[in-house]
Amino acid sequence: MTATSASQRRILFVDHAGVLGGAELSLLDLATSFGERAEVLLLADGPFRTALAAKGVRVEVEPLGALGAVRKDAGLPSLGALVDAAAIAKKVARRARAHDVLYANSQKAFVVAAAAGLLAQRPVVWHLRDILAEPHFSRANIMAAAQLANVRAAGVIANSHATADAFVAAGGHRALVHVVHNGIDLTPFDALTPGTVVEVRRALGLPADAFVVAMFGRFHPWKGQPVLLEALAELPGVHALIVGAALFGETAFEAAQHERARELGMADRVHFLGFRDDIPALMRAANVIAHTSVLPEPFGRVVVEGMLAGRPVVATRAGGVPEIISEGDTGLLVPPADAPALAAAIRGLREHPAAAAAMAARGEARARAHFNVDVMCAQVGRALDAILNEVARV
Ligand code: UDP
Ligand code: GLC
To answer: Of 113, 182, 279, 338, which sits most exposed with the smallest number of CB within 10 A?
Structure first.
């Protein structure tokens, strides 16, 4: 039998989110690369649907009921949520029959796809983008997810070795796992011009000569916005751009960061920009990109983006980040939740601009070669081939 390539298979991607998180932005590129063969089913409506449609990707929405409210750091889902899961699984199964494989892009989507795959007799692949460990997830959730993968996933594509290792530590079968690092679309970085820095700074009302640190991420305690604020308090005169929104309802946490900036007397040099779609330009306009996650980051697209923007990146040494940055060579790594260490790293970059620029150039070259979207899509295609040819063999 000749092996069928992934490019010939019809894929139904499933994602629970309607907002644009990193998992969704990665799927946006992936689904686009599969062209006509891909369809995306979202379990919530929102800007992700619009973004997919704008790229010409076929997209449908099938909203979750009570299952949508299940928190990943809580215990097992309620009976109501399970009943909803069964109902949605039936609907997804109906759609899945027109495809060769179900491809779940999030944990909630995997639960739904696992059931739908059983009903429709279709293999299920889980793109695992989370570190299945406490306190990211409750213990019950971790065990259930790993065991469900063992019995229902034809393959698991992990976004880093750290993500893969956590899956195995949770009881997941190593043989299921293929590691594919995220890749970023280079096009918007290639479109930056020598005028970008001046234009962006003018539009933001930033002094042209200010030293600017920028942090990009949704508001969530584990993304570490407070660490940047504490570090900034040790760096007089330095400005910060804090870019991102409370995508999953963390509005009180977001408001607390505004309050903290005021308390520290830094409101005039901390700029909260909300959700933006011009990340490459904002990164280029900064002097340093800070990644501040206090828990292990599964991958961290923002780290790669900072490198692609040609700016020195200081990131936390945990999760998948050390797979992206080689310490001291293509970026700097600091311990998680260590504001003095972050401040010291930023100070060092400010004091040694030539060394910082050289490090940024090495980072940019590494990111272009290893973390670009074409590499990612080709690797996902190969992983899918391996997984589905194995399914066909047994
Ligand atoms: N991002 C964005 N607008 C914002 C803030 C972030 O488009 O205002 C993007 C950012 O460029 C990155 C993604 O959101 O591509 C976040 O992905 P990452 O893997 O860093 O973290 P996640 O949110 O997936 O945990
Ligand atoms: C998740 C992770 C993030 C990763 C992204 C894309 O949202 O939190 O670290 O980069 O997925 O795989």
So the answer is: 338
